[in-house]
Amino acid sequence: xxxxxxxxxPNGHKITLFLEESGVNYHIHPxxxxxxxxxxxxxxxxxxNNRMPAIVDSSPADGGKPVSVFESGAILLYLADKxxxxxxxxxxxxxxxxxxxxxxVGGLGPMAGQNHHFGVYAPERIPYAVDRYVxxxxxxxxxxxxxxxxxxxxxxxxxxxxxxAIYPWIVPWKRQQQVLSEFPNLERxxxxxxxxxxTVRAYAKGExxxxxxxxTEEGKKILFGQTSARPIGT
Length: 234
Known about the structure:
Blueprint: E1 2-6, H1 10-22, E2 26-30, H2 41-44, E3 54-57, E4 67-70, H3 72-83, H4 91-121, H5 127-147, H6 161-170, H7 184-194, H8 197-210, H9 217-224
Parallel strand pairs: 1-2
Antiparallel strand pairs: 1-3, 3-4
Helix pairs in contact: 1-3, 1-6, 1-8, 4-5, 4-6, 5-7
């Protein structure tokens, strides 16, 4: 059993994509990030960076006590190693998959996240910031489109954790002020993954939480106003 601490964000969706594809038994613990659930002491024991997703594996491979894992890329790698799924065994295939996994966690995710922040959540529009991150997102879409010119999936012929990491960050392409049809190879890949039964199931798991009210001004303070000297509630 995997306990998944989750909210329906791109990073949260990565993990339900894996769990639905693999058939691993799991239970969702919702972490409402606009209400401050990520700052509760019990969650910080699992995810000290106060970010979801995180997991607790009650049946780790070494047979020892439960294992907690935070950071979405680390979780995907842990689950792939645990199950033997969606990560090639050969040196070159594993290397390529991990390159693109880290490309997402170090590039596409942060850049698209700033795109979302300055385009949707910022209290005032800053044209330079919006332009900067929209253009960088566009550049990264181009990288993916070229990568997929002759490949069905990011790492090659097989669906891997690299695809699972990247797909949820392409889902909000309209919010990112992109035109998916301008990237035909990326669009073809996107549609193929969108139609996978496990993808449909994974996104359905998030629907009860995605229908919550929009983030309030107080919620924005919780999401964006924390520093090391200003913990939650102060």
